[in-house]
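Table S2 (text version). Query chain:
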Amino acid sequence: MDVQFDGSIKFIHLGAKGPNLLTLKVQNQLINELNYSSCKAVIFLGNNRIFSAGLSLFDLLNANEKEVSEIFRTFVNLLNCIRNFPGPVFSIVSGHAIAGGCLLALACDHRYGVFGFHRMGLNEMALSLDLPKSILSILSTTINPNYLFEIASQCKLYTPRQAFDRGLINEYIMNPFIGKKKSTELALSKAIKLAKFYIEAGEPFCRLKKTFRSDS
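Corresponding structure-token output:
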């Protein structure tokens, strides 16, 4: 994981290569980075193959009951920290965003997707994992309600265009001719402009976001 700044905007690169698994250590690092005193906006990025593959199945399979509970409790805390961050939070989904990786993106205020052959979706039901109320709240306040049951229960993995149609992402950089790298750069440029707009809005934006979250 790598953290960089552009003024008050914090860029959190989950990893330049590999699956960008949300291990307990990584989750705690991300929670610590979501500090409004150190930045006024956050942008999450993965790599051009994988945004995040979610929780580490290896860790879960090798953990005892107490450790498993801690992993899931920390993950829900991470999602809540993202949603409750006073400033705007963005994600640039340029690679696979599966299970917990998909949820991390969905917890953000605004999500950019780019053209490619990667997939986005939830597979918890295939692993016999429950979706607690706090996670269903994220789904119900972000995605197209017509697809809520399908996304939550059928373990489908969507192309970027399908993800856009279902509300998993807000904006889709769809031009296949400019390439994935260029698409990602364009999505990032748009995220930076929107982040600065909300930073300049200041406290009214923070209050508005708090109101949205209190109603969810």
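Notes on Table S2: Residues 29 and 100 are 16 Å apart (CA to CA). The first strand starts at residue 2 and ends at 6.
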